[in-house]
Specification:
single chain; 156 residues; alpha+beta; 6-stranded mixed β-sheet; 5 helices; 6 strands; globular; DNA-binding
DNA sequence: GCCAACGTTGGC
DNA sequence: GCCAACGTTGGC
């Protein structure tokens, strides 16, 4: 299948690029998505091999921190069944899961990170989902937007 | 199925 | 901490 591009939002105090970088094989589970629009994208469209921009929200330095690759496509998010998790969903069961996770592997970190203000200053990025639908936690990124963002750090 | 009340997100 | 935008809930 054709490779797609995404932007995943993270609150770095909960789980962010540093957690991913420290994980075995720099691979971690993207869990805790509890919004139906984001869930549907994750479940139906995010495929193994897709590339992902990691965005940090709700923190002092908002922006893009790196690139990851999807290494496992959607499967039931274990945290929905976990009474100890803040993401427990009492209406979900293993027989009828509601939420999904994917696994991603960190490929590289931007140096320096790409601040939100830097993204906003690029006319070519004015249509980014990040600006049009800022609350969506799993967002599509076009091939053109992806290339432009890579070029901001001299990357292909 | 409408819609008011309420909760959450997230930049500032 | 504020507050606008937006998502969810639940009575009718």
């Amino acid at each position: 299948m054709h490779q797609n591009y995404w932007l995943f939002k993270a609150e770095p105090e909960l789980y962010g690029i540093d957690h991913l970088a420290a994980a075995p094989a720099q691979t971690g589970r993207w869990d805790g998505i509890r919004n139906y629009q984001a869930r549907n994208l994750l479940r139906d469209q995010v495929q193994t091999g897709d590339l992902v921009l990691i965005y940090h929200s709700s923190c002092r330095q908002l922006g893009l921190y790196g690139v990851a690759q999807v290494v496992r496509s959607a499967y039931p998010d274990p945290s929905q069944f976990d009474p100890a998790s803040r993401y427990l969903d009492p209406k979900a069961s293993p027989e009828a899961p509601r939420w999904v996770s994917v696994d991603i592997q960190l490929l590289r970190q931007f140096d320096p990170f790409i601040a939100l203000a830097e993204l906003k200053a690029e006319p070519e990025l004015s249509q980014l989902c990040l600006f049009r639908q800022p609350r969506l936690s799993i967002q599509p990124v076009s091939a053109e937007e992806w290339a432009h963002i890579q070029h901001l750090r001299g990357l292909e």
